[in-house]
């Protein structure tokens, strides 16, 4: 189990206030992604379905990572019904704390702010749902 979320503030993708990651508490799933990343595109439907099922049991947030075309990222999120908040990390500020070799990375944040990581693409809805159960104790 890692410590708390990093002291990093990131701007919203599109409009909205900056978000300080260290202030966030779970149960929360943060997905580090980019529109140019094929595995990120592959796992997007699982995250959209999780958002639909989660209701108020769990929050989801995306971090668009080192993306040279933020307008394409906005379009990708809209096209894939990823209708949860997304932040922008153009400067790779989460690279070290989230051990990002490249996207995707999924971060599971518990109610105290402690987090665990899943590096690489999510391969099925069942896998994502099981990770949410095991790491956050949330039944969907």
From TrEMBL:
Annotated localization: Cell envelope
InterPro entries recorded: AhpC/TSA, Thioredoxin-like_sf, Thioredoxin_CS, Thioredoxin_domain, Thioredoxin_ResA/DsbE_sf
Keyword Transmembrane: yes
Keywords recorded for this protein, A-Z: Cytochrome c-type biogenesis, Disulfide bond, Redox-active center, Signal-anchor, Transmembrane
GO molecular function annotation: antioxidant activity; oxidoreductase activity
Residue spans crossing the bilayer: none
Primary site of residence: other
Any one GO cellular component localisation term in the record: cell envelope
UniProt name for this protein: TlpA family protein disulfide reductase
The species this protein was found in: Kribbella sandramycini
């Amino acid at each position: 189990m890692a410590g708390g979320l990093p002291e990093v503030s990131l701007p919203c993708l599109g409009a909205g206030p900056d978000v300080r990651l260290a202030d966030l508490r779970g149960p929360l799933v943060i997905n580090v992604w980019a529109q140019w990343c094929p595995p990120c595109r592959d796992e997007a439907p699982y995250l959209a379905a999780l958002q639909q099922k989660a209701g108020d049991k769990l929050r989801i947030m995306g971090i668009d990572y080192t993306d040279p075309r933020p307008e394409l990222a906005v379009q990708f999120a809209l096209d894939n019904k990823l209708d949860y908040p997304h932040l922008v990390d153009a400067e790779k500020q989460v690279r070290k704390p989230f051990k990002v070799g490249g996207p995707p990375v999924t971060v599971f944040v518990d109610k105290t702010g402690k987090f665990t990581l899943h590096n690489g693409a999510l391969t099925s809805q069942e896998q994502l749902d099981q990770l949410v159960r095991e790491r956050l104790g949330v039944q969907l």
